[in-house]
Amino acid sequence: MDPLHVIALDRDLHPELLKRIIPDGHPLTDWPTEPPTPPTIELAAAARAVADSILREPGYAVVDTQAAELTDTELVSAAWNLFTVLCVPVPQYLTGELIYPVEVTAATGPGISHYSTSNAAGGFHTDGTMLDQPPAVAALLCVSPADEGGETLLMDGLRLISDLTPEHRLALTRPFWFHSGDPGSPLRHQPILNGTELRYLRRYIEEGHRQAGAELSTTALDALDRLSELPDRQRPVPLRRAQVLLWDNTRFIHGRRPFTENTSRRRLRRMYGTPRDLSV
Ligand SMILES: [Fe+2]
């Protein structure tokens, strides 16, 4: 497997990224969506390199902000400010949150997170399957990692799709019912595969069919799950504090490895966005 694609941010960019501090407790629906100031040539160039990695190859980037020594508030603000240079942030839920803390405790079992062990398919998914349009770019900032494990797993949809049989590929282009299972949330009818774009979350599809009273043929889903469970299809991404993973969310499906939290909790901040035009 290719080495992890890490882009180290120049520390000289820190003052620019710290021009706007978003205070703790600021409403998650109200984070600023524009960059703090028009980006300098240096910051725009750094953002372009990240965008090229996400939108071309390898389809993702780990940005090491080199800012682990900042306070949590400063770190989250700097990462958000960088993200607003790269993307127009978009809401993550129908309730409009623009940034979201991902802090699922591992305390549901003997140090193992419930979600990561919840089903054999590993819960691999696309983010934002219930939005009109899943976000083009998804990002996770690491504020602190778990003591062990918790790596994000990225599975390249382009490869998964090309390895499916034509019958399974065709089956995934037909509409499936999706429902999150939350009371009052919508029932959507949409394809899993649209061109090369994936929109996948098996649990929502099973729930959607149950709610619609429709029979679900799982043959093609099983084939997709089997491929994405192959270790050589999985790119594990371990994140340290102050690193941000960004990826093409309609290309990759993703999940995470189980983790243990003893002295350190796995604390991430999630962001979704539409890439800006950074061409000069
Ligand atoms: Fe996710």
Automatic annotation (TrEMBL):
Keywords of the record: Antibiotic biosynthesis, Iron, Oxidoreductase
Origin superkingdom: Bacteria
GO MF term set: oxidoreductase activity
Domain TauD/TfdA-like intervals: 42-272
Cofactor(s) this protein cannot do without: Fe(2+)
InterPro entries named in the record: AlphaKG_dependent_hydroxylases (IPR050411), TauD-like_sf (IPR042098), TauD/TfdA-like (IPR003819)
Family matches, as Gene3D superfamilies: Clavaminate synthase-like
Keyword Iron part of the UniProt annotation: yes
Name of the featured protein: TauD/TfdA-like domain-containing protein
Organism expressing this protein natively: Gandjariella thermophila
